[in-house]
Design goal:
The protein is of the alpha+beta class. The protein has helices at residues 11-29, 51-56, 84-91, 119-122, 131-145, 165-182, 185-195, 200-203, 205-208, 252-263, 267-282, 296-306, 308-318, 325-342, 354-367, 371-380, and strands at residues 35-38, 42-48, 64-70, 101-105, 108-112, 117-118, 218-220, 229-231, 239-241, 248-250. Helix content is 46%, strand content 11%. The protein has a 5-stranded antiparallel sheet with strand order 1-2-3-5-4, with helices on both faces. Strand 8 (229-231) and strand 9 (239-241) form a beta hairpin. 38% of the residues are buried.
Length: 390
């Protein structure tokens, strides 16, 4: 439905409708009894919609809505489209339980809400998810790839198109180097330097893009991890996906690579997921998606390398201003997991010792101790908006 205009055009009826919408929307944002859900990109407030408001926005009677508010935080992942609502409208006919955007006002949005249990609740990071769930995940990725390109929102003029996989990877590289490493260098540069992390961690993939096989572009979710994949109630346990704001249009192997890295699979399940994804694609008429399957290693390396930037920033921002040695040690171990994973992919000269990482984090905290620097960090990054990596 349109969320911007009532049936009548212009004049007082339109104004009254808009005022009514706004009054109900802002009242529900503060309605008691809601459930606060924090993601890495949005704060979600799940609240029952009263009968009047549900009727206005054409929601089911007795339904709950999810009010989404973008967090003020570091932007570490590229986006093809700025409007999540447009992506949802295109995806909804093809996948289960995709939310409907009922209303947008400014940076806030009201979506329908479907009850479900995130995979992380039953299968925490690094724990096996089991063969049945692996098969369902492969099916989810195939169904995402099947969404017709003609039904997706228009692409930005600068976005690579067709099957130009080299241009697609270079777009990812440019974003990681320019929009992440250089943009946030003022706040985190000393920490990056102390850990041996440079812009070359991403830049080195620019040349590797030349050797990629060309594959037709498809819709990619790009953030299929244990918190964004939920299980519907019931014996079937079907899966559905939330948080489509960083969806991309590009190389389908990038979808598989981001999934493998962010799910935190053990070696056996990671290999099994590769097999199942390959079988799912080739078995449903998407054999062109697996052409040059060995390119997956390039995308896996890139994902590990670019993750150094957000993982380091998230850890630093998660620390208390007066963090003691125990907290610094926990933070250092999170950073070390990322460094160990990316040492070859990012071309790091060495991985520092735990005490070195603790010292680097302590020095960064001390550098932020001045009042003006603390206030600037608070303005740029919401408190708690970037939870540390697992």
């Amino acid at each position: 439905m349109s969320t911007e205009a009532p049936a009548s055009r212009g004049g007082p009826p339109r104004l009254l409708h808009e005022l009514r919408l706004r009054w109900h929307f802002w009242r529900h944002r503060r309605r008691p009894g809601g459930i606060l859900l924090r993601g890495q990109h949005n704060t979600n407030y799940v609240v029952p919609l009263d009968e009047t408001f549900a009727a206005i926005v054409h929601a089911e009677p007795g339904a709950s809505g999810k009010i989404r508010t973008p967090m003020k935080t570091v932007e570490v992942l590229p986006r093809t489209w700025r409007s999540e609502a447009d992506v949802l409208a295109a995806v909804r006919p093809h996948l289960p339980a995709v939310p409907t955007c009922l209303l947008t006002r400014g940076s806030h949005a009201l979506h329908t809400f479907t009850e479900g249990t995130p995979l992380s609740a039953d299968h925490p990071a690094e724990e096996p998810v089991g063969e049945p769930t692996l098969r369902k995940l492969a099916e989810v990725m195939r169904r995402i790839a099947e969404v017709p390109a003609a039904e997706l929102p228009p692409l930005p003029s600068e976005w690579p198109v067709g099957n130009d996989t080299p241009a697609f990877l270079r777009t990812l590289v440019d974003f990681a180097e320019t929009r992440v490493f250089l943009t946030y260098h003022e706040d985190f540069g000393t920490l990056f330097e102390a850990l041996g992390i440079t812009g070359a961690a991403a830049r080195r993939f620019y040349g590797r893009a030349d050797d990629l096989t060309r594959r037709p572009f498809r819709l990619l979710h790009t953030d299929l991890h244990r918190d964004n994949v939920l299980r519907l109630p019931g014996e079937a346990g079907d899966l559905f996906v939330v948080d489509w704001e960083i969806a991309l249009f590009g190389d389908p192997l990038h979808e598989l690579a981001t999934h493998l890295v962010r799910m935190g699979y053990g070696p056996r399940e990671a290999e099994r997921m590769k097999e199942l994804w390959y079988e799912e694609m080739t078995g449903h008429g998407l054999a062109d998606a697996v052409r040059g399957f060995e390119d997956l290693e390039v995308y896996l390396d890139f994902e590990r390398a670019q993750s150094l930037y957000p993982d380091t920033m998230r850890t630093a921002l998660s620390l208390s201003p007066d963090a003691d040695r125990a907290e610094l040690r926990r933070g250092a171990r999170r950073v070390l997991r990322s460094l160990d994973s990316a040492v070859k992919a990012a071309g790091l000269a060495r991985v520092p010792e735990e005490e070195e990482v603790m010292a680097a984090l302590a020095d960064w905290l001390a550098d932020q101790s001045g009042y003006r620097r603390r206030q600037r960090l608070k303005r740029r990054y919401s408190a708690g908006a970037l939870p540390p990596p697992p």
